User: Fold these one by one.
Assistant:
Number 1:
Amino acid sequence: MIATSHPTVSNLATFHDAELYKVVMDRKLKTLALAFELADGNKEEFSFEGVLTYKIDNIFYQNVVSRLYLTSARMIEEGELDRILSWTFSRVAEPATKDSDYFQKAKSDILAGKLILFYLDPSVGAQASVIAENILIS
């Protein structure tokens, strides 16, 4: 059996130079999984449950992580949170407005700890954001 836990700041630090190599989603179950190979060769997977929305952009043959952010680890300042949410909710080149009800409700729920925001800042390739009720790492 694979051990699972909630990610911590120290967990996330090990993902510098990791490579995203698999994405699995299920719209009906509202789940998403992102699998990474760490720089040391170990493999880790983030599993998201109760996914509200996600966005993954610029997936290439190689997708290298610069850093990961997670609101449940208190890693994102409010201005950065607004920038990430605008990008996450944008469906076109223009970012979503911070004044929309949907944006404000998601931001409020994230700040209250009802939802978690996960953000992958890339070195190369995929940029990703996930808003979900729960996140586990295994």
Number 2:
Amino acid sequence: MTGLERVLIIFLWIIIGCFICYKRDWYREYESSDAFPQTFIVFVAIVAMPINFMIIFFKMFLIKKWNNE
């Protein structure tokens, strides 16, 4: 694997992780909570992006009806 492929994979990993956090409003749930800071939740969501992506994919496209809101 070349250096460019690694950079692109890391770039896509971060972009998709941030998009999932933004679209699902996971960072807003913990705004007023003292238990977890929202930056920690966003960091974990970006690091665990493949798992989050699979959860969202199965939940939104296979379990529920497809509603593109």
Number 3:
Amino acid sequence: MKEKKLWYVITCLHKHVQLNEESTYLVRMVDDLGTARELMQSIYDDAEKGITGKHGVKYSDPKWLDEKHLKLQITSDININGWLHSTTTEIYQLSDDWNSNIFSNTSWILD
């Protein structure tokens, strides 16, 4: 029997302001809660400092959306050559799931 192990998953809901479009994607999977919480806090800290990422995206306005610090909203802005501007709202969420669901090879999702 395969051992079930709990994984901590960080996902991002990406809301593009100008295009009014949304997408969701997996950001990270880690095997311990401490590391997952550190990653969430690092997102908050970087946005609070207003850092600019490696692709020229400036992060700002961090807001915890819950008391347990499992859901975090930030804003990201990019200007390209002064003529193209893009703003997104990103909502990061930390959750957990058993590896039997995350790494399942079954042909269905809902059970």
Number 4:
Amino acid sequence: MQMTIDIPEKDLIEFGTESIYKEISTTIKWLKMKNSLKKLSKELIKLDEKYYWKEIESIRQSAWNDYSENGI
């Protein structure tokens, strides 16, 4: 996909083509990084939830073992 941006001639003269290009490139890099961090965050949340349920199951099993061994 290609995107075309219409920049007024006045702005090109005032800021310079190279500085506008650098600014757009930098913005795109930050957007890519932000997107990557969002994906990573979603995966970390899943890992935390899996860890939580694993710990819950471990606690339940331990409690059951104590109950069945000691008749508490």
